[in-house]
Amino acid sequence: MSVATQNRNDGSTANRSVLVKPGMCGHNSLFVGNLGDWTWETVSELCDTNAFDAVNADGSPTYLSFYYFHIRASRQMHVGGLTFGDRLDVASRLFDFGSESILTLHEVRPEGARAGPIDPDSFYRFADPRCIYVENYNRWITRSRPGSNEDLVKSSPVGFRHDHLPRLPDEHSPRRVYNHARNRLTFLDGLPADRTPLRRAFTVDYPIEPSRDLNGVGLLYFATYFSIIDWALLRFWRSLGRDTAAFLDRVVLDHRLCYLGNADADSVLRITVDAWEKTGEPGDELVNLVIRDRDSDRTLAVSTLHVLSTGGAHDDA
Description:
alpha+beta, Thiol Ester Dehydrase, Chain A, twelve-stranded antiparallel sheet, 6 helices, 18% helix, LnmK family bifunctional acyltransferase/decarboxylase, HotDog_dom_sf, acyltransferase
């Protein structure tokens, strides 16, 4: 049986029936990688451009890079809870952001729990605990010089069709969110009054591993950022005296990631972690991570998570 079957619903939507196999789940970034593939597949099918082999007007390869990735989940349905044999219904809908960018919304539910076409107002209420809600905002980019992953530039592919796609209502645009993260180095809009520091400014260095972290065109793979974040988070947890079992039992209710740059294969990343717990509810935590290139101090990514460190012991809110 294939991992997924899919069909076009309309000019902006694709639906998939997915069987979760060992290569797409676990305490890793495998499922995130599949989400990214579904974004590229949906764009390829509905926008008359092969995202896996796109070129710009100069004939240079151009890539549908991830700029903003948001996963909203619940105790009942979250990425870490998926396992072998789960059957999922996945709806993916594209929205027009011009010739250089595109937004994809995914709704991932257990088989048979599909709620119909994706409606932005309903999507951004995140109200269904049986659903994993995913936002992918992507930009077309190319290398500005051969062999380097620095100074990537925007570059649309030949034939990219987007005018037929719906426009996202302004109140739901991710631009304010990711601009805030880029400028403030956090997705938090100030610290909630009911949060107290768990630990501040924990820092760890991560040498990029070329045998594991790069994709087929030599860029730091977008899903690798999720793995690096988890790698740093595990070391942060150990600094608090927590064991591995507690890390594996965590539930990530909300994960936002803004990609600001890429890195070369021999780079070392410096990751700073800050965390706050909810007063009176130990285990309900907000975590903020900033990833920089250690030598140049370039900021490569900003990520903020809402984590239940004691598994499903707390409400989703």
